[in-house]
């Protein structure tokens, strides 16, 4: 058996890693998997960069940021497998949420109207709203910025963004230190269950196929250990498929509930797995299709176009200077080549392309695949603007028209 250590945070979307260890998928590939629970994304990043672990459960934008050397010395990161699409939600204090549409279902079903309602509420709040984000370079922060920007809100001027670990968001909200937060599950559901927050928006309704967490390794480790990496990706592919199967959700929720993993009630964890979310305390759960996707619709395939969408948002918010080198480095983080190598001959659908126009699909679409049968899921952004990775400047000009 090959020993392997992976760092993770207590989030529902760590499920494929936990299932790989606990349900034997890693062992079947000859891997003795150890999972190391951390509290903050900064710690996970540092464990990976300085070699304390061989791989990490990581925010997709953080993998790009580390490669580009944003906020620390650059370190080339490889992301050969996406652990999930979607899965986050924006939760506001009851005081701030009172300024939004009182129809809770309409709030999340119509992110355009809710964004405008939120923009109007800013000036009426007792202070500039303080919103918790889990990291400056997180999918959640980029999605929040995208949503706010649509309504003409400048996230660097009109609100205060405060970085907190996801598991501490509810405590900060309870203490009044923040007025809301955007984070992965189960932390929005925890805030709702405690009666201290209301869910105002869900990530899947902002971007139908929002890139979330990836499996990240140092590029030099990935290149030095190809066989071990292939074994790990095969194990994760089977684990992710197991996590997506509703027949396994009760078992999975019980696993995640263990104190060494997420440490929250199984019933609460199961909401996100089933796509039925309570928006307010004691409210009837609302069906949110594809709230969290582990495997279906090529969810695990690392599209380079998604890495470039992340780069486009870094440009939009002045987080990086534009350059051909930075653009190429960003695209190169998502290693579709390693994914294909590991899963060749497995029967898993392997997209023929590594890049596509993001946000262009309104209905499921059959796509070319090197093996198996591939159907891509709808992936539109809520504002209807597609992202063409071949024309990033043109895309950014359309966003300025908001």
TrEMBL record:
Coiled-coil residues are none
Recorded hits in SUPFAM superfamilies, A to Z, give: Periplasmic binding protein-like II
Its main subcellular localisation, reduced to a broad class, is membrane
Any Pfam family matching the protein: NMT1_2
The transmembrane segments are none
The UniProt entry, under InterPro entries, shows: NrtA/CpmA_ABC-bd_dom (IPR044527)
Among PANTHER family, the record links this protein to:
ALIPHATIC SULFONATES-BINDING PROTEIN-RELATED, BLL4572 PROTEIN
Q: Could you tell me what this protein is called?
A: CmpA/NrtA family ABC transporter substrate-binding protein
**Native species:** Sphingomonas agrestis
